[in-house]
Design a protein that fits this description.
Elements (H helix, E strand, L loop, with lengths): L7 E6 L8 H15 L3 E6 L11 E4 L23 H11 L5 H14 L7 E5 L4 H8 L4 E4 L4 H10 L4 H10 L3 H8 L4 E4 L2 H11 L6 E3 L21 E5 L9 H11 L7 E5 L7 H8 L6 E4 L4 H10 L2 E4 L8 H8 L4 E4 L4 H5 L7 E3 L4 H13 L1 H18 L2 H19 L4
Parallel strand pairs: 1-2, 1-4, 2-3, 4-5, 5-6, 6-7, 8-9, 8-11, 9-10, 11-12, 12-13
Helix pairs in contact: 1-16, 2-3, 3-4, 5-6, 9-10, 9-14, 12-15
Length: 421
């Protein structure tokens, strides 16, 4: 196969919709750019299904979808069970463990078994279920993306659990990470999104470093750009918490907001994400009387997100850990001045010189109060950081670059394991 031959790619994602997190954003934009480079892409997804661009194929693999809104952890009707994988999905979930990586991978393997001649390779987006090894055993070359190892989520969630029972339930939920480690060690080539994630995958999954390669993710700087027609709203703080979990650090930002409001009563927070009823964040909102000063927004278009960044005087990424952080570079691309923690890969992504973003230690409420307050009070700081941040993103991160470098990884994989045609 020549270096110019278009590739036929099966792109797997066990949850494809963008509102479920950065993985859905990754699948949508990577698939669009791969098609733009002349390749054929079929996204094979479990629910909630992705919104894809023109020219990208979609195969929907239904499941019981036990985490769907508005009735998560429901009891499926008997008529919903179609096969043994559905029974397995419910059984694992009933044991308080996340089943989707395993059950989606088994459904994907079953689907691909009858389509071996339709694809040159399979690209799995962090599913890492045992079905991925079945696909590999069928002879389909397989590239894996690991944005960051979920063993890190498991550790941080357990550390911040308020009670021993909560710690036990977190460990049960994340029990699937043992499977992901076993699968990751058997894959021939893996891409990840930052050097920080590279190190964490080696440490957390025990993967051979020579199998790991870094391909940064990106943003569309022509879409995520400042909107001069919108004036920032005084006191507006914006953050993204697509998953209301301890690792995103939202509770620390809420505590900082309450303290900020004693001196800056106009300070308020807009959160892109859906709150959980029993999370530390929702408890903090109630305890600190912030209900009228915090707004959660979900299900909005990319353009509305761009407008929200233009309305914000400061964007904040307070995460305890990030393997990359798409919200950080989206905010920077929109010219929003950014305050970001130093958790995980964030300094690598947003810059370390203090000119493109302001840093705070992870989980440090007082530092958030100081730095967010500094940006809110000083328009010249907002302007300087916003302009420098957008330039950094424009110079370093775009989805077209991500796609080009991913294709290079596809061809390297095919050189190693041999093409199917």
């Amino acid at each position: 196969m020549s270096a110019d031959t278009p590739l036929r790619i099966a792109l797997l994602t066990y949850r494809g919709h963008a509102y479920t997190g950065g993985q859905g954003v990754y699948v949508r934009h990577l698939s669009r750019e791969l098609v733009g480079l002349g390749h054929r892409v079929e996204v094979i997804s479990g629910p909630p299904y992705p919104i894809l661009d023109e020219g990208v194929g979609l195969v929907e693999l239904p499941s019981l979808d036990l985490y769907r809104s508005p009735d998560p952890f429901r009891f499926p009707k008997l008529s919903e069970y179609n096969d043994w994988i559905d029974v397995l999905e419910y059984g694992i979930t009933a044991c308080a463990t996340f089943a989707e990586p395993l059950t989606f991978s088994l459904r994907a393997a079953r689907h691909l078994k009858n389509r071996l001649d339709d694809f040159d390779l399979v690209h799995d987006n962090q599913c890492l279920g045992y079905g991925i090894l079945q696909i590999q055993d069928m002879g389909l070359p397989l590239l894996e993306t690991i944005h960051h190892p979920i063993v890190v989520d498991r550790r941080i969630e357990a550390q911040h659990a308020p009670t021993p029972w909560k710690r036990f339930t977190k460990d049960r939920f994340y029990a699937f990470t043992g499977m992901q480690t076993r699968v990751a060690r058997q894959l021939p080539r893996i891409v990840t999104v930052s050097s920080n994630s590279y190190d964490d995958i080696v440490d957390g999954h025990g993967v051979d470093p020579q199998k790991l390669h870094i391909v940064h993710v990106g943003v569309d700087p022509d879409q995520f750009k400042p909107n001069p027609a919108i004036d920032p709203i005084p006191g507006r703080i914006m953050t993204t918490a697509s998953a209301d979990i301890a690792m995103k650090g939202l509770a620390f930002l809420l505590e900082a907001l309450a303290k900020l409001r004693t001196e800056l009563p106009e300070a308020h927070l807009v959160v892109i994400g859906r709150p959980k009823t029993d999370s530390r964040a929702t408890q903090t909102i109630a305890e600190l009387g912030l209900a009228d000063h915090v707004e959660f927004i979900t299900g909005v278009s990319d353009q509305r997100i761009v407008d929200l960044y233009s309305e914000a005087q400061v964007a904040v990424v307070p995460s305890l850990y990030e393997g990359f952080s798409l919200p950080a570079i989206e905010a920077m691309s929109c010219g929003a001045p950014l305050v970001a923690s130093t958790g995980g890969a964030l300094p690598e992504v947003v810059g370390t010189d203090g000119e493109t973003a302001i840093h705070v230690p992870p989980g440090d409420v007082e530092a958030l109060v100081e730095k967010v307050g500094l940006v809110l009070r000083h328009p010249e700081i907002r302007s300087t950081i916003g302009v420098a941040g957008r330039k950094r993103v424009h110079d370093n991160f775009s989805w077209r670059i991500t796609a080009e470098r991913t294709v290079a990884e596809y061809r390297a994989l095919l050189d190693e394991v041999g093409p199917r045609r």
